[in-house]
Amino acid sequence: MQTDNRLLDDLARLAAGAAGTLQGLRGEIDNLVRQQLERLLAGMDLVSREEFEAVKAMAAAARAENERLAADLEALRRQVRPLDPPTGE
What we know:
- By secondary structure, this protein is mainly α.
- It has helices at 2-43, 49-80.
């Protein structure tokens, strides 16, 4: 009976040690994957969220300005049309 308890104790210690080792191994793998991913992303020359949002806002402002200028141009064309001499005469 004493031998069974000692064997079970040894197996329990072995299992606990293996679990701890696997947990540490998982942490190491996670760190390595994270480092590789960060290195890969750093080499891609990606823009930050702040830079993207700033350019997006600039593009929206430029689009609004372009639409305003197009409306102004159309209004000017309507004013000039009545002054154009008739063609074909």
